[in-house]
Amino acid sequence: MKPAVPEPSPPPEGAAAGNGAVKLPPARSDAPVSPVARKNGFMSQSDTQAEVQHPQPSVGSIAAHRPHTVAAAVSDLEPDIDADLDAYEESQADGAPLPQGRFLDRERSWLAFNERVLELAEDPGTPLLERANFLAIFASNLDEFFMVRVAGLKRRIATGVATRSASGLQPREVLEMIWARSRELMARHAACYHEDVAPALAEEGIHLVRWTELTEKEQARLFTLFRHQIFPVLTPLAVDPAHPFPYISGLSLNLAVVVRNPVSGHKHFARVKVPPLLSRFLEASPGRYVPIEDVIAAPNHLEELFPGMEILEHHAFRITRNEDLEVEEDDAENLLQALEKELMRRRFGPPVRLEVEESIDREVLDLLVRELKISEAEVYPLPGPLDLTGLFRIHSLDRPELKYPKFVAGTHRDLAEVESASAPDIFAALRARDVLLHHPYDSFSTSVQAFLEQAAADPDVLAIKQTLYRTSGDSPIVDALIDAAESGKQVLVLVEIKARFDEHANIKWARKLEEAGCHVVYGLVGLKTHCKLSLVVRQEGETLRRYSHVGTGNYHPKTARLYEDLGLLTADPQVGADLSDLFNRLSGYSRRETYRRLLVAPKSLRDGLIARINKEVQHHRAGRQAFVRIKVNSMVDEAVIDALYRASQAGVPVDVWVRGICAVRPGVAGLSENIRVRSILGRFLEHSRVFAFGNGGEPEVWIGSADMMHRNLDRRIEALVRVIDPAHRAALNRLLDTGMSDGTASWHLGPDGEWTRHATDADGQPLRNVQEMLIDARRRRRGTATP
């Protein structure tokens, strides 16, 4: 199978689609583009990657001292699920070549996703503290976008390797669009806080105030707090010929202070860093909270920091730095050590954004711009307070009436028909049937976590193999793996230490697991291990039986209560054999590329999906049932999108349910009139990936870890598993039907790249909320449904 990744060619300036081809609607331009940017083209650079093998040895044979047979011999299993699909890999629908300009810009699409988050904060129908939470999520999302996407784009421009995007925009055009669009969204974000959410919180007795709004008693109380708990950790840094401009760490909140020497009359600049480990909002009195920088900047407090000097002015500012990682793995003798060094270097990445209070003095701003070597386009003046990620602290207040109604997940009914104090025997349940889990509606702790904990404690379990991409700091999953290793079981853990922004935590857990006797490996050089897999090997009489879990989400008990994800628990011998083969590839030397019930990136996943999309065209032409339904976080891979376009042109209905980025232009006559794109955001983060096909009346459904992005399909180990239980396939198709229904609240994507929110019907009544429907279904099952 060849990787099917076409290099998108740029549209000729001013050219039509050509040859009577489809005429595409223009995407809305969010920023004026300078003539310089239009000329700023860059040479293309190939990004081929040689195949490499991981030097770590595999775990080895399992319990060779025990006589056993495998429950199903590998030779008895169908060797290649794609054997009958090879003819469809490169088949294309008849007709003209697909038009230029058919892809929406991914960076603009990401900003549109964050705009949808902001719309939830702006919606008066969202519970008030949840609105504050969405404001914090918006701010946190935008921080990461600048740290990674904007920083990476700037780096590629600076090094001359940036190429025209698939949407046809030059790199400089994309950057200018980002600056203009993000400025607009940040202004809306600040307005939502100041004009809507903060006043509404005040009406509910939660007052977010500034220093000048405090009473004398409150100021006195905070002065005592300042003297005893804040002042000792502050370090004012002067800037003068003897003191160079200090390093400003990324995302830190700072005060630019201008003081004057009363003797000489000279003015001086100093920087005071707001301690990041202290609470962002301090409680001045019950129900009244003030930003910590206001407490530090109070006149009598700054005088404590600069005794004998006159305090002339102070201004809050915050910078965002490039925090994307670059580890040259091929040259690294020890990936763990190389990553630790790169994490240290990341702290000193170049700035990519400067946020300042809009009242800042021009002279002070000029100094910051000059010393930070940042352009005026990257300066964002905003009304204070800056850094509204601090609203996470406000959301944590114990005011349940201002939040979503509490929901506690229950045990999946196939694992415990009647919940009781005793833990279910998960192995016995899986011998009876596969279990399809839907988190957070089904409890993670009584399913996946219990599966691994039971495996760790079971004396008949011989080995556990596990991938870890992200997990919590006090993870019971890690504890179970350690317990298993300490009891003599063979434990293999694939720890992805390059999981972005979790690198420090994963390094820590990798070492803890190694110290406990686990075999810890880091996957294949050049590829992130992103698949979500568990394999348990158990001795049952004279037989070895394999139990498996394949999921769409991380093994993270805390986020499993907030993220919507799917998982399959099974004792199916085909899945067990596939996971054994895949783990052997990840831990040892194996070139296996085909599996029985898995599609695995980077070798077979893209081609396998495209072949199935193409096959739907043939089913449609033969008059058989044909459809394509995809639920993912991101849809930007050009080869997959082109396959969807060709399916649409042939008349196949295509539904795409996407949470974030989407480069598809739906609803274009002659190209994508049979494609619908929807997005759903809510109290849970929609995170599952589902791929469903009509398959001529015998629906085929897959779930797994992969989004439709280059990084997932080309630079990661991803896995999809085919769901074979008819009831499970039907349940997943019902979920997709509900998500795509016009009666469900969602955002609809138009051909111009604009998202339109559909939250009410023609009579103004709220449309159904798919997440609330699923919550209520679980409550009804337990007899606790809302009336």
From TrEMBL:
<feature type="domain" description="Polyphosphate kinase C-terminal">
    <location>
        <begin position="425"/>
        <end position="591"/>
    </location>
</feature>
<dbReference type="InterPro" id="IPR041108">
    <property type="entry name" value="PP_kinase_C_1"/>
</dbReference>
<keyword id="KW-0460">Magnesium</keyword>
<dbReference type="InterPro" id="IPR025200">
    <property type="entry name" value="PPK_C_dom2"/>
</dbReference>
<feature type="compositionally biased region" description="Pro residues">
    <location>
        <begin position="1"/>
        <end position="13"/>
    </location>
</feature>
<feature type="domain" description="Polyphosphate kinase C-terminal">
    <location>
        <begin position="598"/>
        <end position="761"/>
    </location>
</feature>
<comment type="similarity">
    <text>Belongs to the polyphosphate kinase 1 (PPK1) family.</text>
</comment>
<keyword id="KW-0547">Nucleotide-binding</keyword>
<dbReference type="GO" id="GO:0008976">
    <property type="term" value="F:polyphosphate kinase activity"/>
</dbReference>
<dbReference type="Pfam" id="PF13089">
    <property type="entry name" value="PP_kinase_N"/>
</dbReference>
<feature type="binding site">
    <location>
        <position position="500"/>
    </location>
    <ligand>
        <name>Mg(2+)</name>
    </ligand>
</feature>
<feature type="domain" description="Polyphosphate kinase middle">
    <location>
        <begin position="218"/>
        <end position="393"/>
    </location>
</feature>
<feature type="binding site">
    <location>
        <position position="659"/>
    </location>
    <ligand>
        <name>ATP</name>
    </ligand>
</feature>
<feature type="binding site">
    <location>
        <position position="141"/>
    </location>
    <ligand>
        <name>ATP</name>
    </ligand>
</feature>
<dbReference type="InterPro" id="IPR036832">
    <property type="entry name" value="PPK_N_dom_sf"/>
</dbReference>
<dbReference type="InterPro" id="IPR025198">
    <property type="entry name" value="PPK_N_dom"/>
</dbReference>
<feature type="binding site">
    <location>
        <position position="687"/>
    </location>
    <ligand>
        <name>ATP</name>
    </ligand>
</feature>
<keyword id="KW-0418">Kinase</keyword>
<dbReference type="InterPro" id="IPR003414">
    <property type="entry name" value="PP_kinase"/>
</dbReference>
<keyword id="KW-0597">Phosphoprotein</keyword>
<feature type="compositionally biased region" description="Polar residues">
    <location>
        <begin position="42"/>
        <end position="59"/>
    </location>
</feature>
<protein>
    <recommendedName>
        <fullName>Polyphosphate kinase</fullName>
        <ecNumber>2.7.4.1</ecNumber>
    </recommendedName>
</protein>
<feature type="active site" description="Phosphohistidine intermediate">
    <location>
        <position position="530"/>
    </location>
</feature>
<keyword id="KW-0808">Transferase</keyword>
<dbReference type="InterPro" id="IPR036830">
    <property type="entry name" value="PP_kinase_middle_dom_sf"/>
</dbReference>
<dbReference type="Pfam" id="PF02503">
    <property type="entry name" value="PP_kinase"/>
</dbReference>
<dbReference type="InterPro" id="IPR024953">
    <property type="entry name" value="PP_kinase_middle"/>
</dbReference>
<feature type="binding site">
    <location>
        <position position="470"/>
    </location>
    <ligand>
        <name>Mg(2+)</name>
    </ligand>
</feature>
<feature type="region of interest" description="Disordered">
    <location>
        <begin position="1"/>
        <end position="60"/>
    </location>
</feature>
<feature type="binding site">
    <location>
        <position position="563"/>
    </location>
    <ligand>
        <name>ATP</name>
    </ligand>
</feature>
<keyword id="KW-0479">Metal-binding</keyword>
<comment type="function">
    <text>Catalyzes the reversible transfer of the terminal phosphate of ATP to form a long-chain polyphosphate (polyP).</text>
</comment>
<dbReference type="Pfam" id="PF13090">
    <property type="entry name" value="PP_kinase_C"/>
</dbReference>
<dbReference type="Pfam" id="PF17941">
    <property type="entry name" value="PP_kinase_C_1"/>
</dbReference>
<feature type="domain" description="Polyphosphate kinase N-terminal">
    <location>
        <begin position="103"/>
        <end position="209"/>
    </location>
</feature>
<keyword id="KW-0067">ATP-binding</keyword>
